[in-house]
Amino acid sequence: MTEQTAIDEREAAASDRLDPEDAGRALTAVESLLARHRARFVELVERDEQGQALKHEPAVDYLTELRWVLEDMHPADVAYVLEALPVDDRLEVWKLVREVGSSHDEGEILLEVSDSVRETLIGAMNRAELVEAVESLDADEVADLAPDLPREVVEEVAAALPLEEREQLRAAMSYPEDSVGARMDFEMVTIRDDVTLEVVLRYLRRFDALPDHTDQIFVVDRDERFMGALSLQLLVVTEPEREVKDVMQQDVLQLGPLDDVGDAAAAFQRYDLVSAPVVDAAGKLVGRLTVDEVVDVIREEGEEQVLAGAGLREEEDIFSNLWDSIRNRAPWLLLNLFTAGFAAWVASRFDATVEKIVVLAFLMSIVAGIGGNSGNQTMTLIIRSLATGQVTPTNVRRLVQKELLVTLMIGLGGGAIAGLFAWALSGSLGLGGVMWAAMLLNLLVGASVGMAVPIVRTRLGYDPALGSSVLLTFATDTMGFFIFLGLATLFLL
Amino acid sequence: MTEQTAIDEREAAASDRLDPEDAGRALTAVESLLARHRARFVELVERDEQGQALKHEPAVDYLTELRWVLEDMHPADVAYVLEALPVDDRLEVWKLVREVGSSHDEGEILLEVSDSVRETLIGAMNRAELVEAVESLDADEVADLAPDLPREVVEEVAAALPLEEREQLRAAMSYPEDSVGARMDFEMVTIRDDVTLEVVLRYLRRFDALPDHTDQIFVVDRDERFMGALSLQLLVVTEPEREVKDVMQQDVLQLGPLDDVGDAAAAFQRYDLVSAPVVDAAGKLVGRLTVDEVVDVIREEGEEQVLAGAGLREEEDIFSNLWDSIRNRAPWLLLNLFTAGFAAWVASRFDATVEKIVVLAFLMSIVAGIGGNSGNQTMTLIIRSLATGQVTPTNVRRLVQKELLVTLMIGLGGGAIAGLFAWALSGSLGLGGVMWAAMLLNLLVGASVGMAVPIVRTRLGYDPALGSSVLLTFATDTMGFFIFLGLATLFLL
């Protein structure tokens, strides 16, 4: 890369006009400046070792340039870059960020990064720095960070908060992780219903700015009970002489602090909302949920399902340390090892049969594998339907019938192909027939387990996705071997 | 269910206060009313057959009650209910919805439902009904529906549009599926920069309502070129005497109509946006993207990845017809059948070995299976990192090193456990050693393929997720058999 393109990049990264590629460009710029800074350092050390004088040179100071770049970046872009850097580079950049940025930006960055990256960043800060960064945040944001912060830092920050905010922090930290309460914020603008819009407008002009995502202001009575909402859109299109109570909307989505945040997110998506009031059991307005949190929730839910599908407990920092990665992955692999071992043991009960017809050994994994694949398709679709709440006691029987019928058709067709293959490989028509039957039966096993496990887990109040795939593979492997070798023992010996 | 609870449900579903459970309650209410209507109908027919008079009875007419429920429901909730009903119930409810609802609601519902459900609903409408429902929508919404509508309907609707909207429809339909252009709308409020906020407020009061998700109005020059944005929040907190050009923000995210909508969604999430202007190459404001579309995009992306992981081409209507389901699932199963067949053929080349040591037959699928599981974990993480753009030419080498090291550690540990199991099952220490080595090697195969396939596919410009898992299983199955049986042939015979 030439000097010129580096400067172009810096300028692009620093330009006023934001565009979707900003974060990616910033990453490239930071990486290349870091690399050049390193290369220069190595060069200087080498020259020093060769006895060449380290005189003052008019060299480009890449580190200074990097500071400029970081200074101009949006905190969310800094967070993005930090995520993508190997740990040592990340900590070096984080040090520069803290030299040039405000403590508020530091707090924002800590909020933006993933849990595992946050851990590395927090580990590099001392207590005073942490307190400074965290105390610049709102109560709900402090609550989000609290689980990852040293206890003393949270206490020190809490002690310094005004009474109302300390109360909010306490409340936010008390709600369960997946509840609306844990995700809401407290930055609501509230008004009374007996004033005119003119008065509301005058009131609002006393603010320097409204909280982010204020698309509506909330109407409450003397006891802070929620009465309705006035959207800014209505406020600006309506004649200022009218009173709030005549204009406000009452049919707005109200959330409870203990509502499941996934359900709330689905409601935001259904009704295309930007914000919603959070109202407690007594009707008191206690907070609001905004669409930026909802977007995060939806993204996280998608990620969780993808990760759970591969047996990963959580998102990994791509440069997490070895031990964290192993802890994240090993439990599921170990579980699979045990189920595969059990299936192998079941199959080994038929060793007399396999000894006589060796080709069975090579065909049996096809039966097991395709049963698992097909069951996984059924299970994935059922888990999705369960997640949206569209599987009901009324329609579940028809759903089961349909799935079994689809599997039967696929089993008849796919089993025939597998049977032909077995016939060709072994030269035995009987073995082809056994293959066909075993395939069909194991596909039905896969479909049944693929439906039963998530449905039963949901009924019992568990997450349908977690662990279901291990149970499925266990069933299709074990039953696949058992059915295939069992039929072969019955009909071919 | 008693009469009373049904009425409670109806009232809950119809209450002004929206909450996240509304859709679910509506579904239960509709299901139970439909079931009771059916039961009543059967009863009447039976009585008729038994010769009992069908005299006018003061019976509850469940169908009328169902109409009331549907009339009070939010279109998005109706869409939700339609998704969850078996096809015959769905069409019956859809008929009632069209009797009681406005054609605008019908259009909204068609927009909300999934592609496959939309197909069934459109199939039940005649041309005139479709035209009426569709022409009540905005140009960008018509464009969204167009691919699923009969050609003549789109033409008839387009012909009836005013020139400007017809032009917008043509533009929206011309952009590629995953572009910002295909997702943007045209409902922007624009102003000039040389007026005061007072003038802007007066101008806005001439609207009955602003378009949904108007959090900012756009400032353009005489040639419709984008100059900046004025947020409603700023508009209401700022003194009305000030001029737009002094107050407007210029550092807002600007999108191009050809930008990838996934990148745009990531930017919305990073910068917590509600709307963003879409500006063409000449700087002209051509549309806007809003957060409700972004929420849909993020949800769809998550769904696609989950479905692709199970080898499903698309989301299925849970009550889609058999043939659609088979078409959705069979190709991937067939592909897996071929790769499993190939792996079986490779293994069968070692039949002399297996004939001598039968227990190999039962252990070989463990080696293949765990290699596939572990490779899938690696692949899932890499695909996620690739999707966020955080894998760069600079860090990819460190990433590969780290993955191989993690796999090596897991392989040493997991391989040892598998080796002990093999030893126990066979009584041969040598076989335990072969198991250990084969497991370790096949885990490394899985990790290598799990990284290489998505990275290479991304470099070549393909989607990294699609098809990767078939290639991975192919590699870990074939190589697992080959390595294990090969080592056994070398060392145990």
From TrEMBL, chains A, B:
Q: How does it sit in the membrane?
A: Multi-pass membrane protein
Q: Where are the transmembrane segments?
A: 330-347, 359-383, 404-425, 431-453, 465-492
Matching InterPro entries, A to Z? CBS_dom (IPR000644), CBS_dom_sf (IPR046342), Mg_transptr_MgtE_intracell_dom (IPR006668), MgtE_N_sf (IPR038076), MgtE_transporter (IPR006669), SLC41_membr_dom (IPR006667), SLC41_membr_dom_sf (IPR036739)
> CDD domains annotated for this entry?
CBS_pair_Mg_transporter
Q: Which residues fall in a compositionally biased region of kind Basic and acidic residues?
A: 7-20
Q: Where in the cell is it found?
A: Cell membrane; Membrane
Domain CBS intervals: 248-304
Its keywords, alphabetically, are: CBS domain, Cell membrane, Magnesium, Membrane, Metal-binding, Transmembrane, Transmembrane helix, Transport
* Region described as Disordered: spans on this chain: 1-20
Q: Which superkingdom?
A: Bacteria
The record, for Pfam families, names: CBS, MgtE, MgtE_N
Q: Which family does it belong to?
A: Belongs to the SLC41A transporter family.
Q: What does this protein do?
A: Acts as a magnesium transporter.
Subunit info?
A: Homodimer.
Q: What is this protein called?
A: Magnesium transporter MgtE
UniProt source species: Piscinibacterium candidicorallinum
Which gene holds the coding sequence for this protein? mgtE
